[in-house]
Amino acid sequence: MAHYDAIIIGAGAAGLYCAMHAAKRGRRVRVLEHNADPGAKILISGGGRCNFTNLNANDPSRFVSANPHFARSALTRHAQHDFIALIRKHRIDHYEKTLGQLFCDGARSSARIVGMLLDECAAAHAAISTHCKITSVRKADCFVIETSQGAFESTALVVATGGLSIPKLGATGIAYDLARQFDIAIEPTRPGLVPLTFAERDLAWMSPLRGVSADVVVSAGKAAFREAALFTHRGLSGPSVLQASSYLAPGESVCVDWMPDANDDWLAQRKRARPKAHIKSALSEALSERLAGALAETLPAPPLGDLKDAALVEAMQRLKTWRLTPAGDEGYAKAEVTVGGISTDALSQKTMETRTVPGLFFIGEAVDVTGWLGGYNFQWAWSSGWAAAQAL
Q1: pTM score, whole prediction
Q2: How far apart are CA 123 and CA 221, in angstroms?
Q3: pLDDT tens per residue across span 221-237
């Protein structure tokens, strides 16, 4: 039975990055991946351009976790600029799209990120086994991992298998299974960065707007995001909605500001300029005609000049605090990430090693650290993978 300093389960972003850095430190490393090829989620990310980090990724407030401070150590010690330096070393062209989001330049350029990681692993002599299904894991003096390709033995075991999101790419709950096997606490999991679905009452006015997008502010709890919202055949999607979904517990409502640049007296001002106009016509100055019409259906019908300023202010306040209660979401099939996971209380903030099982590490999406949309989750993969590698 081959013995390694570290076995890493999962050849995704966190697993490959951990492997290359551990191998560079002279550790004998093998990565076990059940898919045919490494980096499946990397390849599809960012529409094939891979939003690989964010210029603001070292801000722990942009991560959802039961312990909002847990991610700070890894994100600070191995920050976005460290990964950008690697990108530049490999001469991968990239650009800032918006809000600090960094993308590779060129169609299907995400393949270059996977290629870079594999090249770095090869240069450091980190071995990778694909089509390798884990059948059992046990620990005595060391870890023994039984697989479809035989047994492997290692001093350390790093679980980098991700969460439950996008099962068509091979996502499984193995990280949680292993956590339960070793009595490691798990925070409840749910889909994150996921489109929201609505019941028939809301879909009656939403469905005709399918394909319409608008620049809005969507709030969930204390979190608020100004980006596009997109109407779908089942409800709402778009960056602002996906962001808010990570903060939204089942049964809770979101608040939508359909006109974030307008103040409460916006309609009253239009009344003085266009007293014969109706609310729908006025709203069409700031919103698409279809969306303006749908929203106006719930507001006073007379011309603006026939309405008191107080009524128009009330109508604007409704437009700026429009509450919607989702019936649910599109589930893990459409979720970009998994919220929850391995409890941070069970892990060392510095090394990602479990406190009760020496040599057992969890990194990346499997951990209860979920980033905002826009490169934050990749940076968590890089940072947590690097942190674990320093302790192997």
Answers
A1: 0.95
A2: 47
A3: 999 999 999 999 999 99
Q: Quick one: which H or E segment has residue 198?
A: none
> Phi-psi category of 87—alpha, beta or left, where left has phi over 0 and alpha has psi -120 to 50?
alpha
The domain covering 2-191+339-389 belongs, at the CATH homologous superfamily level, to FAD/NAD(P)-binding domain (3.50.50.60)
Read off the pLDDT of each residue in 358-372 and give the average, rounded to a whole number. 98
CATH 3.40.50.720 fits 196-329, yes or no: no
Contact of 262 with 316, CB cutoff 8 Å: yes
Q: How many whole angstroms separate alpha carbon 280 and alpha carbon 99?
A: 32
What average pLDDT does the segment 360-380 reach?
Answer: 98
Quote the CA–CA distance of 242 and 171 in Å, as a whole number: 20
Q: Distance of alpha carbon 355 from its chain centroid, rounded?
A: 26
Q: What's the order of all strands across the beta sheet hosting 101-104?
A: 51-54, 101-104, 94-96
Domain ranges within the chain, ordered by starting residue? 2-191+339-389, 196-329
pLDDT tens for residues 91-129?
Answer: 999 999 999 999 999 888 999 999 999 999 999 999 999
Token readout for 204 is 């009656």
Half-sphere exposure of 383 (CA within 13 A, CB side): 31
Give the CA angle between residues 301, 267, 318 to the nearest 5°.
70
